[in-house]
Structure formats: structure tokens, C-alpha cells
Design a protein that fits this description.
The complex is a heterodimer. By secondary structure, chain A is of the alpha/beta class. Chain A is built from twelve helices and eight strands. Chain A has an eight-stranded mixed beta sheet with strand order 3-4-2-5-1-6-7-8, with helices on both faces. The mean pLDDT of chain A is 91. Chain B is of the alpha/beta class. The chains are: A alpha/beta, B alpha/beta.
Amino acid sequence: MATVLTVTSGKGGVGKTTTTANLAVALALGGQKVVCIDGDIGLRNLDVVLGLENRIVYDIVDVVEGRCRLRQAMIRDKRLPELFLIPAAQTRDKSAISPSDMVRVCDELRPEFDWILIDSPAGIERGFRNAIAPADICLVVTNPEVSSVRDADRIVGLIEAEEKGPARLIINRLNINLVKRGDMLTADDILELLAIELLGIVPEDENVIISTNRGQPVALDGQKSRAGQAYQNIARRLRGEKVPFINLEEKNDFFSRLFRFNRSGGA
Amino acid sequence: MVNDKRMLVQIKGVKDGLLVTLGEGSWPDLRASLFQHIAEREAFFKGAKLTLDVGNQIIHAADMGSLRDQLSEIGVTLWAVLSNSPTTEQTAQMMGIGTRISTPRPERSIRPLDTNLTNGEPAILVQRTLRSGFKISYQGHVVVLGDVNPGAEIIAGGNVIVWGRLRGVVHAGAEGNEKAVVCALEMEPTQLRIGGQIAVTPKKKGKSQPEMASINNGQVIAEPWNVRER
């Protein structure tokens, strides 16, 4: 029986779609059967990030309105045969489907999969309600900046009110150098305000942008990038493993070692 | 029995839309009866703002949520839920559904409670963290066991006590009582109002301590709560 996981944030542009794509890839790499649903009808992106855009024939609105069977709308990822995508319609809007449609679609998918990941649109309106209606777990993505954390707080409150809580948190795009200089909110600052369980921290990483543009989520390359590593750790935590948080402070490349050596030598 | 179902529901037009009064019966019956009514007069209900008087029924969040979603699918907005049960009322408030007619939709506000206290003043106890978007307005005192996050609002006729971090907007003595006070374990409100006075907290450094804010010589002043002096 699948667990339905909804990725949401309130604010736009914090990395919901990137997180959904990478978690789906990381879970599928771990041998899980995963289906992603793009909840952002009218502004679909998940297909692009996963690199499956050119294979869309039917979408979720076609399923709900009975123009195709659920199977026909599911796109199988060629790189990972256990990963599927149900894309959103681009020519419609959020009112094309309802929360109970989403519950129905997910109930139909549940017996066949281990995970159903739903990418929520930004905002707190219909699209958000559609996305959280079938959720077993809600993941709130936030960036370490005041406006994004404020919206996350509102979203956590709404999730609690719908009795879908407690939400779990992913802090995305944390820039270690800015935190060190005291110019960025730290993970502790965010946790103090939101007071929910932290599932993972994804460091700022230019590989994410490169891979997003190519439709090749960073998690596909596993341990090569820090962000990819972070997503894989989050996926393992979702499966109930205890994975220690990566120490983002420690940079063990040649230059920083040399730098430390010089300093200690000089003192 | 099927035909009798319709008797469970009464509908009348009010200023704010349609007022639907549910009779006695089990929730699934009442719900079915409501939808039967709507199905029979679809055009009449389409686009309507619905106020539902549920009497003594206790409706849980999941039921209310699904009712709201199902109504919205057929073009009916669940505008308000009137209830004698505080549980149902709170559920409605948490979902941003109104609990009274003829008022602007009170988003997440807690309705003044009738208290029979002859001595002392009425107060409400809020045992949760108030997150962004939550609003509490009450004519008496408000006591919060939890944090008040930025973006949350408390408007009280009396005093406001926050056993936690106060970071949102708070207005004590909202009906003009300049003697009202605001207490918090950590006092960092976005904005603090007492009576007609408005204050903004200066940026603080170092460890914060419990403080009490009140009006002193026409100005809002926050002072550390020193246990030994009291």
C-alpha cells in the first residue's frame, strides 16, 4: 500500500518541484515503486524537471474527465523503470479537478505503488487543497529567508487545521557561507519558529540548476553532488532509516585543508 | 423513510445567502438529505453562499472538510456553520469557515463565549501555537499557552498573556482600555497596541526575559518581569 506524500510550501519558487522530482528519483533508486502527480494544473513543470515532457499524451484532467484510463496517463521513466509520472494539464486551471478527484485517483494507485508523490502548486487555494486532500504525509519546503518561512508557517497551520499534520520540513538552498557570516537564517532559527520535525537540509548547489535544465535530477547521480546526496538521505529517512545529517560546515577539499594547515602553521 | 429525509432540512433565504437548518438525525442522513435537496434544485443552489445551522450536531474536521469540498464542486460555497457545540464551532473556525451570520467572514476568530461568571472577568485560554494567518478576537482577556508567530493576530478587550514567544501583532484593551497589559515570556511583537497607543519593538540583542508592557505616561513601555520585586 502506497504512502501519499504531498510536497508544498505556500510561497512559489522555493523548490517544491525540484524536491518532488529528486525525492521520487532517490526513492526509485532505492528500489521503491514511485508515482509522481503534478498538481500544478495550468503551470506544469514536473515533467520538464524529470525530462519527460516530450512523452506526454494524456494528463490527470483527462483521467478525471474520463477521456483515458489511469494507466494511459502514467509515463514510465526510461532511466528508472519503477518511476512513473502523471502530468498536469497545461491548458486548464486548478478548478478542473477537485479534492475528491485527487483522493479517488490516489486510492486507485495505492495498491500498486510504495510511494505517491504529489507536487503542490504555490498558494493556499484550490490547487493546494487538491494536493493535500489525499496526503498521508505533508512535506513543507522552505528557503532560509524570512518571507518563505512566514508562508511555511501559514501552510503548517493550514495542514494542522485539515488534520493532515504534523507536517515535516525540508530546508532548501541553505548557503553555508552566508550562514557563517551571519547573513542568512540558520536551520535553528527556522526550526525555532516552525516547531516541526526536520527531515533534511539541502545545500545551495549550482548542479541543481544545471540538472534541472537538462531534465536530469541531481539525485540520479547520487553522491556526486551535495544536493543529490542530501536528497538521497531524505529519501532514506522517509523510509524510516536513521541517517545522520551531513555536516555542511566541513569542506574537505585540497584547498581548505591547505588553508587550515597554513593557519595552524602560522600561529 | 426516504421521502421523509427531506424533512430533515429546512431552507430559507437570508441576507448573506441561504440558511439551511438541519433537524435531528444522524450526520450521514442529514448530509444525504442536504445533497438530495441541492440535487433537486441545482440551478437555485448554484453559486449560493450557504450557512448551515447544525444545532447540536458534532461535526469533525474530516466531515466538515469533505462537505465543504463536495459543496464547492457543485458550485455552492460553505460560508458559515452555526452550531451549539463548541467543538464544531472550533473546527469551523480552524478551517476559516464563519460561525455567525451577518458579519464579514471572521477568518479564524474565536467567538465571544457566554460565561456565567458573576465575579471576575471573562477570559479565553488558547492552548496552541498561533501560526501566521490565525486571528483571535475576544472582548475579555486572552491567555495563550504557546507561541504567537509573526503574521498571527490577537485582539482582546482586556489583557493578553502569552506563555511563549510573542512575535505577531497584539492589541490589548482594544475597546479603549488604556489600563490593559500585555505579558510574554519573550516579547518581540511585530506591533503592540494597547488602547489607542501603538508601539513597535526595537531590535533586541542578547537573552530575552519575561516582560510586561503597559501604558505609562501616554506611552507603551515594556518592563522586565522581575520576580523578586513582586
